[in-house]
Design a protein that fits this description.
- The protein is an alpha+beta fold.
- It is built from eight helices and eleven strands.
- A hairpin with a 6-residue loop joins strand 9 and strand 10 (218-228).
- Helix 2 runs parallel beside helix 3 (105-132), helix 3 (105-132) packs across helix 4 (158-165) and helix 6 (235-254) packs across helix 7 (307-324).
- It is elongated, with a radius of gyration of 27 Å.
């Protein structure tokens, strides 16, 4: 309400009505269930040159998981993102996985890749402590360097510790630093994790719509979305997901419609007949967020994939019902065709 200036919008609507304009204000508040679908699997391997390879069983189709998973590993190991590659969707490379659905990629997939990475990091800390003559608990990872706490100038590069892990027991012994007992070489970790329950992202959407009294054509003047998806790994990707969801949800309410003739034949079966929204159909979306971490996920993430679609559609319908309320309208079905709104203004078959 504060971000949208709710009271200011009400005044704008009321002033417009005094001028004879048809304007309405809509609000929706949603709670979604995400992160469903059981377990997920990941592996993380630090190669001998210090590069990091992660595999994930989730299979992205535009969400940017390769970026966010790289960010998570870059933060974990304190190395540049350029050192990291994420592999997915290839059964010859990825051992197992359930895929992408229900906004579970970051919630479950992101968690497992961090868990796998933490196993590798623990091994690297043990090796670095062995190389530097200190306990693993004293090891610090920072800017591509691994060093004892309080002694940043006496450390090893990330790549040096990785190379040591791949020397092999014989060469390690020959170097004067035999491997610690129980370590046999290599740096790879595997994780499988299943959340204890679903996550519940939520949000509030507000819209302002004006309907042309003479033609029934609706125009979206303002749209504000404040969503809460828990911990945000990449704000720009979250905004992109919300933008796309808003376009889809608003399009469903105002523009897109599957129509059938009397014999059941689809008559909007091509993009020549079935309208999809364009950039010119929207105002500039105003986005904000709150952060309420999920208690059921180690990262506190909750999912955001469908947020824009869930909140926007009822928000648009509520705004149109509000705009038409002076004409006695209390309910209207999607899709909000201009003809339908024109008839509602004239109180002619207004609910059809």
């Amino acid at each position: 309400l504060q971000v949208a200036d709710w009271e200011g919008l009400k005044k704008q609507r009321d002033d417009a009505r005094k001028q004879g304009r048809v304007m309405g204000l809509g609000l929706s508040f949603y709670v979604e269930i995400c992160g469903i679908g059981s377990w997920e699997h990941s592996t993380v391997t630090v190669e001998r040159d210090g590069r990091i390879t992660g595999t994930t069983g989730v299979s992205p189709h535009g969400q940017g998981n390769e970026t966010t998973f790289s960010q998570l590993l870059a933060d974990l190991f304190a190395v540049p993102m350029d050192n990291i590659q994420i592999l997915h969707g290839d059964t010859s490379t990825v051992k197992a996985g359930l895929g992408t659905y229900g906004s579970r990629s970051q919630v479950v997939g992101g968690t497992t890749i961090v868990m796998a990475g933490e196993k590798v990091k623990a091994t690297m800390a043990m090796l670095a402590g062995h190389m530097l003559g200190c306990d693993a608990s004293e090891i610090v990872f920072e800017d591509g360097t691994i060093y004892p706490l309080g002694a940043p100038n006496s450390g090893k590069s990330f790549a040096e510790v990785a190379a040591y892990a791949y020397l092999g027991a014989g060469m390690a012994a020959g170097s004067g630093k035999p491997y610690p007992a129980g370590f046999s070489g290599g740096l790879s970790g595997e994780a499988m994790w299943e959340p204890a329950g679903a996550t519940f992202p939520f949000g509030c959407h507000i819209s302002l719509i004006e309907i042309d009294r003479e033609t029934g054509v609706p125009k979206l003047l303002k749209f504000v979305a404040v969503d809460d998806c828990g911990t945000i790994v990449n704000p720009l990707l979250v905004e992109g997901q919300v933008h796309g969801g808003l376009a889809q949800g608003i399009g469903q309410a105002m523009i897109e419609e599957a129509l059938f003739d009397d014999e059941g034949n689809l008559i909007t079966g091509s993009l020549m007949d079935y309208a999809v929204p364009r950039a010119t159909d929207f105002p500039r979306f105003e986005l904000d967020h709150t952060v309420t971490k999920s208690p059921l996920t180690p990262l506190g993430t909750k999912g955001v994939g469908e947020a824009g679609t869930i909140g926007s559609t009822p928000c648009i319908v509520n705004a149109v019902v509000d705009a038409l309320s002076p004409f006695g309208v209390k309910h209207i079905d999607m899709m909000l065709r201009p003809e339908k709104l024109w008839r509602a203004i004239r109180q002619e078959n207004r609910l059809q």
